[in-house]
Amino acid sequence: QVQLVESGGGLVQPGGSLRLSCAASGGTFVIDAIGWYRQAPGNQRESIASITSGGTTDYSDSVKGRFTISRSSDKKTMYLRMNSLKFEDTAIYYCNVNARTYSEGRYWAPVDYWGQGTQVTVSS
User: Fold this and answer.
1) Is residue 124 within 8 Å of residue 58, measured between CB atoms?
2) What does DSSP assign to residue 60?
3) Whether the Cβ atoms of residue 59 and residue 67 lie closer than 8 Å to each other
4) CA-CA distance, 118 to 20, in Å (whole number)?
5) Are the beta carbons of 57 and 79 closer than 8 angstroms?
6) What does the alpha-carbon distance between residue 29 and residue 1 come to, in Å, rounded to a whole number?
7) Strands 118-122 and 10-12, how do they pair?
8) Distance between alpha carbon 104 and the CA centroid of its chain, in Å?
9) Mean pLDDT for the chain?
10) What string of pLDDT tens digits covers the 124 residues of the chain?
11) How many C-beta atoms surround the C-beta of residue 105 within 10 A?
12) What DSSP assignment string belongs to 67-114?
């Protein structure tokens, strides 16, 4: 099992910045793709940023140019830098990893794991 713990959410004024972090732990595992999602009240959870195992990044149109996804060198911590925040960025933000865990002498098929979510509120 891979545990993901998020931090960094909070209240920020429009135009402000926040950085979310997501730390992975739990035995031996290899993280392939990582991503950040968000869910606003009454809306479905949406993907906003991702990094493939090869390091290719992708962003939704709603955050492109304002948000930056990155990861630590050991690939076990991921970040979402959010600049120029808008009212419509208010949501619960979730990190997601696609990871292969190691046990019984082998790596198993990749599984999606989710963080607990962190609230980001943009308000004046």
Assistant:
1) no
2) -
3) yes
4) 8
5) no
6) 9
7) parallel
8) 29
9) 95
10) 899 999 999 999 999 999 999 999 998 899 999 999 999 999 999 999 999 988 899 999 999 999 999 999 888 999 999 999 999 999 999 999 999 999 899 899 999 999 999 999 999 9
11) 5
12) EEEEE-TTSSEEEEEE-S--GGG-EEEEEEEEEEEEETTEEPPPEEEE
Model confidence pLDDT, tens digit, residues 75-110: 899 999 999 999 999 999 999 999 999 989 989 999
Report the distance separating Cα 122 and Cα 14, nearest Å: 6
| C-alpha–C-alpha distance, residues 75 and 23, integer Å | 9
- Residue 13: which region, alpha, beta or left (left: phi > 0; alpha: psi -120 to 50)? beta
Instruction: State the Cα–Cα distance between residues 38 and 93, nearest whole angstrom.
Output: 4
